[in-house]
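Q: what does this look like with flavin-adenine dinucleotide bound?
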Amino acid sequence: MQDEIFIIGAGVGGLTTGALLANQGKTVRVLEKSSKLGGRTASMIYKNHILDNGFHIMPFYKKSAIFSVLKKIGIESRLKLAKVDDIAFHSDTGFHKYPKGMGDLLQLSLIPLKSRIRLLKLLLPMAFTSIEKTEEWDEKSLTEITEKLDPDTKAFFEAVCMLAFADTADHISLGEFARTIIRANPFKGGTSEFAYPDDGGYDSISKVLSDYIVEKNGTVETKQKVKKIVIENSKVVGIVLENIQGDDEFIPTDCVVVSYPAYMALNQLFDKDAIDRNFVEKINRLDKKTAVVEVHFALNSKIDNRQVVFPVGDHYATKGIFFISNITPSVSPPGEHLIIAGTPVDSSVADDSKKIKQIVQLMKEEISSIYPNFNSSLLWERPMAWKLVESVVKEPGMVWKSKMPHQIPGIEGLFFVGDSTVSYGIGTDSAAHSSILCQPKIESYLKIKN
Ligand SMILES: Cc1cc2nc3c(=O)[nH]c(=O)nc-3n(C[C@H](O)[C@H](O)[C@H](O)COP(=O)(O)OP(=O)(O)OC[C@H]3O[C@@H](n4cnc5c(N)ncnc54)[C@H](O)[C@@H]3O)c2cc1C
């Protein structure tokens, strides 16, 4: 049978898998249903600014899984990264620098000295533990260690969770939190720095990957919706492409990679009895969806030189203020500045325009209280609400190896990547990590079949 590998979806998961396989001489065909590349990271131009789908930042800078993929295939120089490390908290007592390492924790003016020492005692052993050990904590909640802490230290954990997971501490597995601390530990080869594409637009990562696939004789096609994966005798035999004219097209293939959230794909792409129902039910439990309300603001003056500010305290609805044009000026036209403010919300809020408006108003008032010249500098605002931030909330029992496996036991030629599948890290980092883990499985299948 043909040796083409069909990848469904041109987000970070699909494209990193495609690039890794293309690098090994495989012929890759990426099919993307929308007109843009990048999936959830797709960017757009609006009033001469480059806007992302909400704020997107790459955790672990050049130690991220995305960067590891680029390095592995030798094209890391094609993605210029701006470093994101000028981060601060804002509390009722003013601005406080975000700690970049354990040493900085002792100087963390956000919390009293006693709390800093307590924090160090908690985080130091965690930072030096092994990734294998953290698996024992995957079922536990981060709040198991934070619930007895004083309110100041708790507020610090909440801010860290917002930065690292865009979520609140009660939603975070202790195992996943610990892996983040380990990966941020420079003594273990990690970094706590973040990155953003220097040319602006987080989807430039996808463009770099897509160009590489095409250079290696692969194809990346937009407006190609896969309607069905056909399975016969527990083997993939082809896919059905939706055709707007009505004649759906069957393409024979024995290797398909699905790169969008597995709990959607399993319910959309297969005949009813093709996949064991119990398996599908097990995966459906991952459908937890985190939601956010975020607003882009364009300003005609610079209200801060920092890159990211986290308002700390329950009284703030705004959980993050990201000064994107301070990270890289390429996102804005000369003389204008771009910021985005955001807050996680219950997913029902993302459909409620009245509530979204109220949240946006509140955010504007809060930003004005921190930056008195915000209102007078405001050129325009563009709110958005997202229901699916990450495929899998980092909840206890739903992380790392408890996610969707890369293969369904007993079914040949079918693979799954992306942020809902076995991987650690958040968002795009986890999508790329899933590709690193899945690629050898695809290679080994191709070897056996040939
Ligand atoms: C507002 C917001 C903020 C975020 N912030 C961050 C952040 O700061 N840092 C971070 O690392 N992550 C962040 N994320 C998460 C990150 O965007 C995702 O985790 C990541 O992009 C997921 O990549 P993926 O390839 O797994 O899936 P996706 O990006 O969803 O890609 C799947 C692709 O498959 C396509 N597709 C679906 N069905 C079909 C079909 N039938 N046929 C063909 N194509 C199909 C889709 O159109 C899509 O392009 C954020 C997400 C949002 C929404």
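The pocket of flavin-adenine dinucleotide is lined by residues 8-14, 31-34, 39-41, 53-57, 225-226, 259-260, 292, 294, 386, 389-390, 418-419, 426-429, 431 (CB under 6 Å). The domain at 99-191 is CATH 1.10.405 (Guanine Nucleotide Dissociation Inhibitor; domain 1).
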